[in-house]
Specification:
mainly alpha
Length: 71
């Protein structure tokens, strides 16, 4: 098991981890730097990935999920 549980790790947690941030930036460049991301800091990653499906292709959402789980 990796360092993050997708159901409890928040976006805020991930934004503070350079490795997790690199994964996010790889698939959604610049997203972490947008002011809107502050609204989601308390959201868990699983919920955020569910919402991301409306903005990112499913293969990218799954890649983020798998790479964060492997950290």
């Amino acid at each position: 098991m990796g360092k993050y549980d997708l159901h409890t790790a928040t976006i805020g947690d991930l934004l503070q981890d350079p490795d997790a941030l690199a994964v996010i930036d790889q698939y959604a460049p610049g997203l972490a730097a947008t002011p809107a991301v502050t609204m989601f800091r308390g959201m868990n990653l699983e919920s955020a990935l569910g919402m991301a499906g409306g903005f990112l292709p499913a293969d990218k959402v799954e890649a983020i999920r798998l790479q964060i789980e492997s950290l």
